Automatic annotation (TrEMBL):
Pfam families from the UniProt entry: ABC_tran (PF00005), BCA_ABC_TP_C (PF12399)
Keywords: ATP-binding, Cell membrane, Membrane, Nucleotide-binding, Transport
Membrane spanning residue stretches: none
InterPro entries registered for this protein in UniProt: AAA+_ATPase, ABC_AA/LPS_Transport, ABC_transporter-like_ATP-bd, ABC_transporter-like_CS, BCA_ABC_TP_C, P-loop_NTPase
Gene Ontology CC: plasma membrane
Source organism per UniProt: Rhodoferax saidenbachensis
UniProt domain ABC transporter: residue ranges: 8-255
Signal peptide extent: none
Residue ranges of coiled coil: none
Name of the protein in question: ABC transporter ATP-binding protein
Length: 257
């Protein structure tokens, strides 16, 4: 990747389910350091596009590059290793595991998980585990869940699960983070916290792409904003322009206001 090349380049991505075109030749680019917003009415294809970006679905056609590396169709683990982290619309932590352990298990390829590494390099394994514990504690503190670190994750509220999901993603040190509806089902106080955490991380250089229906959140955080309707990208640009556009209002409300 050259310094001027966008971090994420999505080129004519399509995804068909049987005869249904859920994503219709979507192309856009996202610069390193941006917080992109992806909006559109229910069923527009946003989550399907996210699943293609994150390697959970193989696109029917098109290409995706992250940091200059081709990632389309390479599978979730390869995409994760290329530096993409994601959260889910409905986070599902391991319910009986402690909040801290849920963050500890997020990083992949830990030496301790490999039998021969344990056998041959115990000091290196211990050092790796110490670093992971330190990082997990750091990110739990960052999202404000330290007081709940030893509790089972099942006791967390919906909003706290979103914060835990963010800590689980950040401990893997991603270049690009996809957030799937961070504001959904979250009370206003926790929503402010989530917005604040995303802004802080972005100021530290983390790039985001966010699916969101809460337009206040989109207006306060996102630039550029991309709009999908019926699988296609119908508009992209500055938040204040896009959110006022009659075509966008029509896509959401089915009529121009
Ligand atoms: N696995 C699947 N098999 C068949 N159709 C699917 C599948 N996943 C999604 N779809 C269809 O693709 C279309 C796009 O769905 P998608 O969930 O991507 O929309 P969305 O924009 O994320 O909606 P929402 O805002 O409600 O989450 C919908 O018509 C949906 O029914």
């Amino acid at each position: 990747m050259t310094p001027t090349e966008p971090l994420l380049v999505v080129d004519r991505i399509a995804k068909n389910f049987g005869g249904h075109q859920a994503v219709d030749n979507v192309s856009f680019q996202l610069a390193a350091g941006a917080i992109g917003g992806l909006i559109g009415p229910n069923g527009a294809g946003k989550t399907t596009l996210f699943n293609c970006l994150a390697g959970f679905l193989k696109p029917t056609s098109g290409s995706i590059t992250l940091g200059g590396q081709a990632i389309a169709g390479r599978g979730a683990y390869a995409v994760f290793q290329a530096g993409l982290g994601r959260t889910f619309q409905i986070p599902r932590p391991f319910p009986e595991m402690s909040v801290l352990d849920n963050v500890m298990v997020a990083p992949s390829g830990q030496l301790g998980e490999r039998f021969w590494a344990n056998w041959l390099q115990p000091a290196r394994v211990r050092e790796q585990e110490r670093k992971t514990l330190e990082a997990a504690r750091y990110w739990l503190d960052f999202v404000g869940l330290t007081a709940l670190a030893d509790q089972p994750a099942r006791i967390l509220s919906g909003g706290q699960r979103k914060l835990l999901d963010l800590a689980r993603v950040m401990v893997t040190q991603p270049k690009l983070v996809l957030l799937d509806e961070p504001g959904a089902g979250v009370n206003p106080a926790l929503l402010d916290q989530i917005v604040d955490k995303v802004a802080t991380l972005n100021a530290q250089g983390v790039t985001f792409l966010i699916i969101e229906h809460n337009m206040d959140l989109v207006a306060s955080l996102c630039n550029p904003v991309m709009v999908m309707a019926q699988g296609a990208l119908i508009m992209s640009g500055q938040a204040d322009t896009v959110l006022k556009d009659p075509q966008v209002i029509e896509a959401y409300l089915g009529t121009t206001a």
